[in-house]
Amino acid sequence: MAEETYSPATTEWYYPPDEVVENAHVPDYEAVYKEAMQDIEGFWAKRAETLDWYEKWDQVLDRSQAPFYKWFVGGKTNITLNALDRHVQTWRKNKLALIWEGEPGDKKTFSYWRLWQETNKFANVLRGMGVKKGDRVTIYMGRVPELVIAMLACAKIGAIHSVVYGGFSEQALADRIEDAQSRVLVTCDGAWLRGDIVRLKDTVDEAVRRSPVVETVIVVKRTGHEVNMEHGRDYWYHDLMSLPIATPVCETQVMNAEDPLFILYTSGTTGKPKGVLHTHGGYQVYTATTLQWVFDIKDEDRWWCAADPGWITGHSYIVYAPLILGATGFMYEGAPTYPYPNRWWKMIEEYGITILYTAPTAIRGLMRFGDAWPNRHDLSSLRLLGSVGEPINPEAWRWYYKVIGKERCPIMDTWWQTETGGFMITPLPSVPLKPGSATRPFPGIEVDVVDEEGNSCGPNEDGKLVIKQPWPSMLRTVYGDPDRYVSQYWSEYKKQGWYLAGDSARKDEDGYIWVIGRIDDVLKVSGYRLGTAEVESGLVSHPKVAEAAVIGVPDELKGNIIYAYCILAAGLEGSDALVDELKNHVRHEVGPIAVPARIEFVDKLPKTRSGKIMRRVLKARALGQPEGDLSTLES
Ligand code: PRX
Predict the structure, then answer these.
(1) Which of 163, 415, 512 to mutate to test the pocket of ligand 1 (most atoms within 8 A of CB)?
(2) Residue 635's pLDDT is what?
């Protein structure tokens, strides 16, 4: 939750049951952490050796052009070699890779063999359309298996996928298409959500009108409603998949370890989203290792990461890492409370889910329906739980632990970011827990909480969270904007060469990290990351708005909600009707997650003399708190 409700370090400890520790992949965190830190490169090399490579690397880490680090230099691989190709050579080919349930209740399963074939078929379709290594393909879909197949197919032929979350609207999609210069886009006619159809194809039509770089649109039929299909541009997925070109065998493109795998846009301090770039080699090593050790993935597990594949959590821990480990994953299309608030618990019972990984906002959302809903179901298959996206408030933690995990299942509270590619600060199953703390860094990761000068903060002192050593799945750059990569992440502690995470945190007496929240103009709303600037530019793109400022205000359910302050164009007066009009406008321009909970019309915004909006003053006003030092305020 946000700063104001943040709970300080606690002495409340939860110890893992002995059998969890004894059976875990890593029963002794301390020992492994210590060993890893003595030789970080050797540690990662050993992990990389557990995967397949066409050719082994010559150098584990090249620091010569820091902060443009390179990992496993000279290595040749492809993430799909590890996620699919190698499994179909073994008994795993008949193991379930993916179990999927649609919101209306329809079901699909994919063995490794079938997923491999479907991926090959679609990879051949893409190749047939002229998609080559290094080309960008934008994917804008609901939570359906074809999304996973499309990502894997791109990776297989060396194309770079850019998945845009299906909750984003026309302009957000158009901006991302434009930035990536994607000529091919894969989408669905629609997606099911709360019993309604989200009309994805309509959004695509408008986005492509705004960003006409797209030449081909491939449409998966999911909801079956009438959609516009533009002749010569739009093709049905099922038609393409039945063409002779869609054969079930496709040669995997041999990639350099450092070749790009995907771009994923995320919010930063300016309105323009950043294209975070990840690569094949280091990313596969890091995501597979972290998933195996933190969630202790075993062959008999049924792993459910309930995120959307359109976010980094889904990329790393629905798609790539579980497949690399040969695990069985579960994916659900729709809303957690549809048609009733027991939907998730019912599916855990039905599919025998053993590990559930979700976000605090989802936990709080389900908690408010009370214990009776989960208590109607047998949840005894669960053995581990997980949390991600924002600090989990201890109350939600305890509910999750008691009511869902029946006090048997340790909760892995994983702190990480789109940029980090995988878990950075997280317990392993053997680590004693404190509700609300992501605990300790993963082996091989050196983090600290420091002051402005870079001195380590004392116990329980607020500071900035930094990462002191490079790691294999670190972002390599901001797509098309290397300067921004350097200035955003590496300039604050340039002398020391540390990565600035953009979060404030505290470290307690036991070395446990407590993440407080963002220090920049980034908001976390229901666990989704949004820049204040994105919402503001959505607002000012309305002709009646002259200027806008947006802040996050703590909310029990969503972590934060958005308050917006708007100055209207000269001569205009605010009204309830205009509030609705503006909310609708933001819904269209940015997406439903960006819609302000409250819009206030003002004549003036508090600004510094250099013209920067002082959001801290707005926030204090909204919360009825003292406004602090106003000496730099514009008069
Ligand atoms: O502020 C931290 C918060 O989410 C940010 C990263 O957001 P995003 O790139 O969208 O990735 C989210 C999923 C990995 C971080 O800078 N955050 C993420 N996980 C946690 C968290 N804050 C506290 N505890 C966490 N477990």
Answers:
(1) 415
(2) 52
Q: Is the CB of 315 under 6 A from ligand 1?
A: no
Instruction: Say what the pLDDT of residue 1 is.
Output: 39
Q: Residue 302 has what pLDDT?
A: 98
503 lines ligand 1 (CB under 6 A): yes
Ligand 1 atom 4 nearest Cα: 389
Q: What is the pLDDT of residues 79-108, one digit of tens each?
A: 999 999 999 999 999 999 999 999 999 999
CA dist., res. 245 & res. 599, Å (int): 53
Span 182-195, pLDDT tens digits: 999 999 999 999 99
pLDDT of residue 630: 67
Contacts 24+ apart (CB under 8 A), 557-560: 557/361, 557/364, 557/365, 557/368, 557/526, 558/361, 558/525, 558/526, 559/1, 559/2, 559/360, 559/361, 559/390, 559/524, 559/525, 559/526, 559/527, 560/2, 560/523, 560/524, 560/525
> What's the token pair of residue 268?
């930063």
- The residues, ordered by sequence, that sit 6+ positions from 43 with a Cβ below 8 Å of its Cβ are 35, 36, 443, 444
* 405 Cβ inside 6 Å of ligand 1: no
Pairing of strands 447-450, 463-467: antiparallel
Distance CA 229, CA 205 (A): 9
Cα–Cα separations (whole angstroms), residue 326 to 52, 87, 89, 163, 313: 13, 7, 12, 23, 18
Query: Measured from the CB, is residue 520 less than 6 Å from ligand 1?
Result: no
Whose C-alpha lies nearest to ligand 1, atom 7? 417
For residue 139, the model assigns a pLDDT of: 98
Residue 353 CA, chain-centre distance (Å), reads 21
pTM over 0.85: yes
d(CA 269, ligand 1 centre) in Å: 15
Phi, psi dihedrals of residue 516, rounded to the nearest 5°: -95, -50
438 CB less than 6 Å from ligand 1? yes
**Sheet-wide strand order for 463-467:** 447-450, 463-467, 499-507, 513-518
Query: HSE-up of 33 (CA within 13 Å, CB side)?
Result: 18
Is there an atom of ligand 1 within 6 Å of 518 CB? yes
Identify the residue whose tokens are 């091989």.
444
CA of 58 to the centre of ligand 1 (A): 34
Q: How far is the CA of 295 from the centre of ligand 1 (A)?
A: 18
- Ligand 1 centroid to residue 268 C-alpha, Å: 13
Low-confidence ranges of the chain (pLDDT < 50): 1-7, 9
Choice from 290, 416, 449 to test ligand 1 binding pocket (greatest atom count within 8 A of CB): 416
Is there a contact between 307 and 318 (Cβ–Cβ < 8 Å)? yes
Would you say the CB of residue 264 lies under 6 angstroms from ligand 1? Answer: no
* pLDDT score for 609: 77
Q: What is the DSSP letter of 272?
A: S
Cβ burial 65-88 (10 Å sphere, 16+ → b, else e)? eebebbbbbebbbbbbbbbbbbbb
C-alpha distances out from residue 128 to 21, 89, 124, 246, 559, Å = 50, 26, 6, 9, 46
Give dist(CA 455, CA 572) in Å, integer: 51
Is the Cβ atom of 290 under 6 angstroms away from ligand 1?
A: no
Q: From the CB of 389, is ligand 1 less than 6 Å away?
A: yes
Counting ligand 1 atoms within 8 A of each CB, the residue from 265, 312, 388 with the most, and so the one to mutate, is 388
